[in-house]
Amino acid sequence: MEQPAATVEISKKKIFDLKEIFGIDIRSLALFRIALALLIIFDLYFRLPDLEVFYTDEGILPRSFAFYSFIFHPFGTSIHHMSGNYAVQLILFFISFVLALLLLIGYRTRLVTFLSWFMLISLHMRNEFLLTGGDFVLRLMLFWSLFLPLGACYSVDSALNSNKENKPTHLLSFGTLALLMQSCYIYWFSVCWKLKTPEWINGTAVYYAFSEEHYAKPFAMAMLNLPMEYLKFLNDFMIWVELIAPFLLFFPLHNGPVRTIMIFSLATLQTLFMISFEVGFFPWSNCAALLPFIPSWLWGKIFSRLKTNERLNLKIYYNSANNLSEKFVLILKTFLLLPETNIIPHEETQKNNEITLIDHNGNKYTGSKAFYSIFKHSPLLSPVSSILNFLNIGEFAFYAYKTLLNSPKLNLFFSNALTVRPLNLKTSRLTNIIVIFFLLYVTFWNYGQWDSKYMIPDKYKWIATTLVIDQAWAMFTPISRAGYWFTIPGKLKDGSSVDLFKDGGKVSWKKPKIPSSIYKNRYWAAYIINLYSLGRYASHLPYYGSYLCKTWNRSHSDEKKLTELKMYIFTEVTAPKGEKSPVTKRLIWKQRCD
Amino acid sequence: MPDLAKNMNTETGILIFIIFLLFILYAIYSNEQNKSSVAKAVRNVFSIDLRSLALFRVCLALLLLFDLIFRGFDLVDFYTDSGVLPRALALKFLNLGEISFHMMSGTKEVQAILFIINGIFIIQLLLGYKTRLATILCYIFFISLDYRNYYQAFDGGDSLVRVTLFWSMFLPLGAYYSIDSALNNSDTETPKQIFSTGTCAFYAQFFFLLWFSVAHKMKDTFWANYTVLYYQLHVLPYVSEFGQHLLKIPKEKLELFTKSIVQYEIWGPVLLLSPIKTEAIRIFAIAGFLLMFIMFGLSFTLGIFPFICVITVLPFIPSCFWKKILPAFKTPQRLNFRIYYDGECGFCKKMVLILKNLLLIPETKIMPAQDDPSVKKDMEEKNTWVVIDSTDIRYFKFDAFIKLIQVSHIFSIFSFVLRLSPIYELGGFIYEKVSNNRKLASKLTSFLSYRPTWINLTEVENIIVLFFIIYVFNWNLGGVDQKYRLSNDIRWIGGTTGLVQAWNMAITTSSNWYIFPGKLRDGSETDLFYDDGRKVSWKMPKTPSGTFKSRLWQDFINIQFTRFADVPTLSTLANYYCRKWNSTHTGNKQLEKVSFYAMRVKTLPGYKLSEPEKILKWKQYCSHKEMPVEDKIREIEEDFSEDKIFAISELWKAGDEYTAKSRFEDADKLYMRSIELDRELYGPNNPSLIKALEHLHSLYNYQNRFDKAKEIKKYLDEMKAAGNK
Q1: Whether the Cβ atoms of residue B548 and residue B557 lie closer than 8 Å to each other
Q2: Which helix H or strand E contains A486, and what residues bound it?
Q3: Run of H or E including A257
Q4: How much is the ipTM here?
């Protein structure tokens, strides 16, 4: 008699899975990569209008001066130093942009990550005065990404993967640990810094922070009207959240849901931060830093809903005579999120270079209809598939597909560019050792700021300054109890005065309604505030002044030409709640324009 | 022979150039099948043999490599911020478009990395792997080096290298004897010679080099009586010992010598262009050029100039040379040489092909071992490749490699080295390792792919080359005749591409040698020009050109003191010496004062030199001792009583030091004294005085001493008004 082949498996669920807690899901990694690429692109885009001012020799920081004007990195290396020419800087910006695009689609990801990181560091080192918290987070994220396979999923690299082994959905290595730790250090060491500041301890820090005029947005200014107890509560709440939330990200039980909730709460925190203060893209970078934490549990829930019967049984036939056709379809399958689709070569369609789709019902679609059907099935595009159909995007896609395959030059170019190569997700032992070293280094660098006994000795500090991984998460610490704003009255030849800060507006000694928005953009704000707070303005102001003279006189007629300008800073020292804050006016610069 | 040198004028030159261009265009754009003998003749004359080009490539890469290594010895001095040329100073020389990667950082570590990367690309050029890419990268890096250290841009050798590298980008350097040719998978056989706009450009550049150098020599009537060489041999910073011996020849012979060299510079290139019996005449012409360049090289210390001149001539070596030489290599020994490799191993095939090409044994037959059963048995049993020589003896493993080296006549000397016991064992060990890991080796070398060798230029590239030929001609013309000088709008093209050139070599009647006396604290003096701390000697060294530390220093010092002798450059050099000396000496032996003297000597007819004239170029203190400001002023004025000019900057420098110590009132006194002195010596309303006053004005504003600033402004206006009277 046959015994039933009963295998009773008792799969013990581990109490906690190291992979889940200290590892990263490759889908989160893909999302993280996309976020980084978008951050770089937007950063470049917003810097572009001021390219001449900040990055050429005709601006406020010509290279001869820039070689000696670093803030934290005395020997900063930057490829932007190779020329002070506007055209060349534009080309370099364009190269960074192309690299960021390649990072976005995940093409040769490891190489592109390294090059993007190098270009970003160069950009920062050319002019350190424009940097804000968002820049520091971005470059650290890129640094740790050098040790991670960002192109593991949802990328051109993964679409053209020739490695037949099963891809792990979860990666665990010292690289993943380092990235997660770095994101948490931003919060934990910020708490350390806070605990060293008296204002944070006695609860008044939030009040003073909201009254830093050069950062506070209208929301913060409104919050100032709350009674002191609420502000004190906010103060303590901030410290507790920043301390506890990152720990909860690693909570061993029910890691999936707990982590998701903590990610949302930290993201909310960042949003609150963003609406209260003008801090550039710091909240965005921090949210990007949270993306690697997204647990497999969440992805599982999302994708399980997407694995409908329709999607599971799709078959796409491509033209086997044309090498590019298969690659095109593979890339399409990856980016439109249809991983279960079967891709099969079909001899029959060879003549017309067509693409054929057979869905779960056995219906056959060819040509542009095939594209439309693909869009309908793709979880990414199905909500908008009717709009796409209306706009005939299916036709357009099919036309592009045909042109790509039939044009010999394009075909050759793309075939050479898109090569099938194995994707390697394993981290070598050497990489792990290097990462452990850097992780320990960075930990001590941060902890040494809390307890100076553990600080990295001076002769090894060059490692951090060369690789630009030095960090100090001293946000709003120490609290400056003063806010400031500026005016630059300039005297014109015909005797009138204009405020150069407002690009020629009327001079007014009154406090501006929203002092944080008097700056042209956050780069100008960072430049001016950095100059003032570092006390370095003396050597820079001649360049700034000459630049203002030059640009004004270039675009104004003779009687309206600038003859001299002065720079005033208004400081309002915040008094404890209820008392009046005195405002002082000080002249910090004067120069002639001829 | 008409004395063309004297009778040529600019317009004739332009006419000749236009005729040349027309011939080229006709030859390029006429059909290949065109029976026209003119087109055929032009094609014949302006073609380049690809094997000569390969020789050119190897020699050029070796020159670049050695040059890089020698520059590396001066890395800290010239390429970092702690030498004589910090980046901020170097920026002052650069024009629009002159870009340099080496500006990226001022630390020696980063520069070292850049040098290493540069070296890798040069080796890539040497071996001929992805040759065109390698040429472009070497070109970019070389320009970058020269623009970081701008003094090199004036060096004739560097200029010629730059220009040669530029035109090489349009020539197929990797067609023969390279990794590229080894992995060539095109069906058509590689042609032995080519004609293209690229080759015409190469010829054109060579003509420009020679003819414009003659034009520069003949520009002045003073030189037109062929005394050029006489004067050139007296230019101290460049003439070598051998050149000084040449001066012993009586004057008439020297003049004849000069005349013949000048005439050869004119007619030699014409010999190259001879349409009849092209190849035979050409060999003579090339021999003549080589002799001429070797003479230059021996008579003058010109750095790499003679070497690059010789290298530029190499591509002109005609095919008949190779036709004669190569058969000499086709010994029976080599004709029956066979190499069998493991047919299943892609790496093995590539390696064998590369060896065949690089070791120059093209007659060797290469076959997969699987083709011959007995060989296959040997291969499998002994796990090795099999090399069979003309006597049918079989060689295996490392012995086979040695045999290959032996058969390749050029490298056969190395076979002796390879047989030495330790190297032999090492070779055997490496072979074992590689052959056991063939799969891994295949994976690692998979980047070496088979591709057809690139030979021809596209239409667009043709147009670009033609444009640059015209541009370079115009540039050279503008150097000789001011009328044709290029306008500033398009001068930047020459700067960006590194095509700036001026073939006027050291034609002056006077020259300098230099003495840098430095006074130590204990009163003694040392000549800082030399590194060994020797005493100052005012006697002229026998061969001043040999006293320079390296060719970079030779160019730097000569050009700085004749062209760029301004306050920032000279004070940077002085500070450099102060820093260097005081970091290795202490106490009484510390350096206190530095001065630079140029000893100027005029060349007189009759083989005599005038008495040297002592010219003080710079004088300054290394640092200032703390003392009451009146004493300081007195000290400086006493010290500089004969050289009051330098007291102006010294007083100012002292003022800066006092400002740094926050002794503002004292600093004021120093500044004002400096300004008064400036006014005494140069009068009011001179540029340096105005600049100094404006600087003070800004300084007081920065220090928030607005009343003082107003005072200075009033004084400034007074000065301007006084000058305008």
Answers
A1: yes
A2: strand A482-487
A3: helix A255-276
A4: 0.83
